Amino acid sequence: MANSKLQLFQKRRLRVRNKLRKVNNGKLRLSVHRSNKNIHAQLIDDVQGITLAYASTLEKDLGVIGKNNVDAAAKVGSAIAERAKAKGVEEAYFDRGGFLYHGSIKALADAAREGGLKL
To answer: CA 34, CA 102: separation in Å to the nearest integer?
Structure first.
């Protein structure tokens, strides 16, 4: 019996998250979600269960409303890095979820690294 796309995505997501949990060492998690229209990034403290910083293509001040492309992802990555540095966060681990590491996901991670966030 073949797995559906959603089942394969969820298996990939859990596999990535479980591997990251093993090497966590108390670091914060930069979680990324990509839809067909938007891309979102959150800086999460799993110990306290709170979100410290958030950036998305839904925000008007980024100027990329409703776009999910490489340029928009790079702007979101820069914004999340800037907001993380404002909160005093220097280091996090990158949780790509079940998304493959290319295209907009890679652009977001690279922009966050260029912004000074160590992933």
So the answer is: 12
Cβ atoms of 14 and 25 within 8 Å: the answer is no
Burial status of residue 10 (CB atoms within 10 A of its CB: 0-12, 13-18, 19 or more): middle
End-to-end distance of the chain based on CA atoms, in angstroms? 38
Query: How far apart, in whole angstroms, are the C-alpha atoms of residue 97 and residue 69?
Result: 18
The structure's pTM equals: 0.89
- CATH number among 3.40.50.970, 3.40.190.170, 3.30.420.100, 1.10.645.10, domain 23-114: 3.30.420.100
| CA–CA distance, 107 with 73 (Å, rounded to integer) | 6
Amino acid 72 reads: A
Query: pLDDT tens-digit profile of 33-56?
Result: 999 999 999 999 988 999 999 999
- How far is Cα 79 from Cα 41, in angstroms, rounded to an integer? 9
